[in-house]
Every structure is written in C-alpha cells, then in structure tokens.
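ARCHIVE CARD
Drawer: 12
Card no.: 0347
Subject: one protein chain, sequence and derived structure
Cross-reference: see card 0346
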Amino acid sequence: MNKKRYITSVVYVAVLLLLLVFKWLVADYGALGFDALFCAIAVIGSLEFFNAVKIVPFSQKVISIAFCASAVPAFVICEMTGIGGYLPVLFLLLIYSIVLVSFGLAKFDGSDLNTTLLSFGAIGYCGLLSCIFSCINHLNYNSAPAVLLMFLIVMLTDSFAYVFGKLFKRWLPQKLAPKISPNKTIIGGAGGILGGMAAGVIAYWLWFGMSKVAGGALVYSGGMHPCITFLLIGFVGAVVGQAGDLFESYLKRKCGIKDSGRLLPGHGGVLDRFDSMFFVGVLVLISFLIIAI
C-alpha cells in the first residue's frame, strides 16, 4: 500500500510541476492545463459523491453532474473573453437549481426533499468549490503563486501530519477526532500546521526566485512583508485543510465507506485527495484578493 501511495504521489507532483511550468511559460493559455484538472476534479468528484450516496435518482444525478461538468468551462471561457466568469456560473446555478427543485417538488423519478438536498450538496461541494480553484487560476494578479501556495499547503500539511503521526504516535497517542477519523492524532495535526507554515515560506521563496529570473514580482497592497503573509496563510490553511479532511471523513463514515474511490492508488479517490483543497482554496482566494487591493 505504501509503495502505491508513494508512486501516486510522485506522479501527482510531476503533473503539478508540468502544469505550473505550462502556466508560467505559455502566455494567455497556460492556465488551461490547471482548468482541465479542476474540471476533472468536479466531474469525477461528483461521480464519487453519488457513488457513496445511493439514494439519489438517476435524473437528479445527471443534472448535478452536468452542472459540475459545465461550471468550470463556463467560468474559464467567459473570464478569458473578458465577459467575467462569476455571473455566468451563477446563471448556470440558477437554471440547474430550478430544474432540481422542480423535480423534487414533482417527485419525478423518485425525487424528494432529501435527494434534492443531496444533489445540491454535490453541486456545491464538487462543482462550485472546483470553480474556486479556477478563480484562483485566473486572478488578475499573483495567480501563479496563489496556485502554487494552495497546492503546497495541502501537500505539506498532509505529509507533515502523516510523518509526525507515525513518529510520535507511540508517545503522544491522543486522538484528534476519534469518532470521525480514529487514525488521526493531535500530534499529527500539530505537525500538519507546521507543514502548512513551511508551505507558505517555501511558496514565497520559490516564487520570489522565479520572479527574479523572469523579471516579475508580487502585486502587493502593503502592510506585512509578503513572506509573513504567506506564512500566515499557510498556518490558517493547514487548520482549514485538516478540517476539510475531517469533513470528508465524516461524510464517508455516514455513507459507510472507507475511500471515495479507487482512481488514485494508495490515496483512494479524487475526493480523498482534494478534500482539504476544497476548503483551502476558499481561504487562498479571499487572501489573494485582499493582498492585491
């Protein structure tokens, strides 16, 4: 299991680096690589969501998955053509919501209040939160360091938590959330926070180094030094990310499953891999919007 996990991690990092280089070097269209990844996360994540939640009828599944498949492309196309991507996504959300509610009220294909709420859960959790990733990817300023920071926070928080948990579990076995995720320890959570802070510092210096080579710079509104800001985002991101991980664990426990899928050997499914990033993405977007004001 560990061998599969490590191989998947190496492939994951390699793909991430390729997408970052593509985004950095290819003018105008370099962001599309990440957009394709985010769209895939939305679609595959929604499929995994409904595979775990068995009671949603086929018609409502199709509507929810269709939204997840169309939301990121709609945002990207409108954003890149200068229209602005936020309103089109909200318009799509309104249309799909009307259809879902109509099916629920009419009890079409076995739809009811519970299945309608679960369908909205898939739309929000997989579709809208994946759109947040593309919002970060298409920020007017600092989009590349924001994407880099988002991925690094998730990766290093997870890695540090795993290592600290393994190393110190024998002496500090206290559980973080025993009823939700029995394997997680408080010391592992503390290690994850250190990992998030390290991610902030590493992301800043990596981007600072690349900017010196390329002649670019962070667009920054002032106040604290950017490195301190990145460190603070990493600290809060680690806390938020671990909360997202526990939220996904809670959902899986309620559904009676261990992993959301088998797409990523050693890691489970897409939702198992990106559960933390759904929450970290919101923090990073808000933080970078504030940084560039």
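Annotation on reverse: The chain has a mean pLDDT of 91. Strands lie at 175-177, 181-185.
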